[in-house]
Amino acid sequence: MSQSMDWKAVDLTLPPPAQEPERQYYFLARCREQVERLREENGRQPTACVTTFGCQMNARDSEKLLGILGQAGFLLTEEENADFVLFNTCTVRDNANQRIYGRLGELNGYKRRNPKMKIALCGCMMQEPAVIEKLQKSYPFVDLVFGTHNLYKFAELLCACYESEGMLIDIWKDTDQIVEELPTERKYPFKSGINIMFGCNNFCSYCIVPYVRGRERSRKPEDILREIQALAEDGVVEVMLLGQNVNSYGKNLDKPVSFAELLREVEKIPGIQRIRFMTSHPKDLSPELIQTIKESDKICRHLHLPLQSGSTRILEKMNRRYTREQYLELAQRIRREIPDIAITTDIIVGFPGETQEDLEETIQMVRQVQFDNAFTFIYSRRTGTPAASMEDQVPPQQVKAGFDRLLKVVQETAKAQAAKYQGRVMEALIEEINEASPGMVTGRLSNNTIVHLPGGPDMVGKLFPVLLDECHGFYYTGHRVP
User: Fold this and answer.
1) Cβ 443 vs Cβ 237: under 8 Å
2) Residue-wise burial string across 225-263, b where 16 or more C-beta atoms lie within 10 A, e elsewhere
3) 142 - beta bridge partners?
4) Among 482, 2, 459, which Cα is nearest to 237's?
5) Neighbours of 1 (CB within 10 A)
6) Could you give the CA distance from residue 139 to residue 167 in angstroms, rounded to a whole number?
7) DSSP at 473
8) CB contact at 8 A, 125 and 148
9) What are 33-69's pLDDT values in tens digits?
10) What are the tens digits of pLDDT across the range 79-90?
11) SS (HEC) of 40-83
12) Which pLDDT belongs to residue 290?
């Protein structure tokens, strides 16, 4: 919509429309006037930078934020001494919050040298009341703060930020609105993430996400399919369907649709050659979904299935709603039905009350499932979650020792899994020029493994059969074959 808009046709003498997204395009037109004034005052095009922290959904949100800033007239840059700097924050772990506070100190230094600079914060971290209090008290130089539920209002908030003084805060506790038809600046022209749902209903006892992202809200399938159709027409060949728990997609729609049904409809769209998705909760992964993946030529052979712990006792404390045995049975069923699938996972070490026996069960589970990779995390105590007030918080030295033991097993298993493909020909989507090795490009296999091979810029964004010559632990080197 924005790419072909006649901005001069937007009548700014009229009140802003009430309906979305038309309202945001009205304010975007006003933003364009503000940015033009800045250009005249500074004698150069104002610059803008968006820095993303956290998950794939944040990355997709940042593409929209960048799209709005680009349409407003900013010159987009990755330099954080820009005229407008926005941090899209994550709050899954406490150290993510601490990183933001540290980076804000650096931005304050830039702002002292450029008093017209604007600093904005958005995302999950901003949904925490304690964070807002700290920003108001210790970081008064921040100009704009908004959260996860009103991200679509960014053009309106950007406009207000340049028309007011002091810190502008706009945080919503929740929303039932979904507004997706906004400008987007994609990182890759040939692949894109698509939000299919927002929020989470699971309330795992360690997780702050349901409190900052809200309850589950699914987009209508026709809106998702229309967006993917437009992406395909724009040259996108790979899409990733995004949600906190994609397996529960469609349950809250007026006419319920299963995630497997949605995938089958996406498959029908011409031009789309690969389909990925994340994240899947084990308790909701249906036989229908396994069968859909098995029968598909487009759905990638990679499933991210968070385990979190291999101990049933700890899983119960985590409120994961499955047992060790149920997870193992599910993973084995997936392996039987789809032998070439890669299964990756998340594991937390040091959850309150975790014993050496619990950790040993997790290590055994890694060996039994043979994960292709696992993202291992030390438990992070998040204020506002049930786990934060649990007794038996595990001593840091015990957690670190357990983490190191687990990581060693994960690395051994992942290397063994990756080595299985040596000598095979597999299709790779070439994603970028390899900057470290001239004359080489980097591609990604259906199972999410990286491969480096000789090639040039003309290969980027296209799929090629690649012979996997040598496994280097977590990646391959290979060469293109006819």
Assistant:
1) no
2) bebbbebbeeebbbbbbbbbbbbbbbeeeeeebbbbbbb
3) none
4) 459
5) 10
6) 9
7) S
8) no
9) 999 999 999 999 999 999 999 888 889 999 999 999 9
10) 999 999 999 999
11) HHHCCCCEEEEEECCCHHHHHHHHHHHHHHHHHCCEECCCCCCC
12) 98
Nearest to 361 by CA among 398, 412, 308, 401: 308
| Per-residue tokens: 420 | 């299985």
Cβ-in-10-Å burial (0-12, 13-18, 19+) of 383 comes to exposed
Cα separation of 361 and 356, whole Å? 9
Convert the pLDDT of each residue in 359-406 to its tens digit: 999 999 999 999 999 999 999 888 889 999 998 999 999 999 999 999
Structural contact between residues 54 and 96, judged by C-beta atoms closer than 8 angstroms: yes
Tokens of 392: 């038996």
Tokens of 282: 């084990």
Summarised one tens digit per residue, pLDDT across range 316-359 is: 999 999 999 999 999 999 999 999 999 999 999 999 999 999 99
| pTM of the predicted structure, to 2 decimals | 0.88
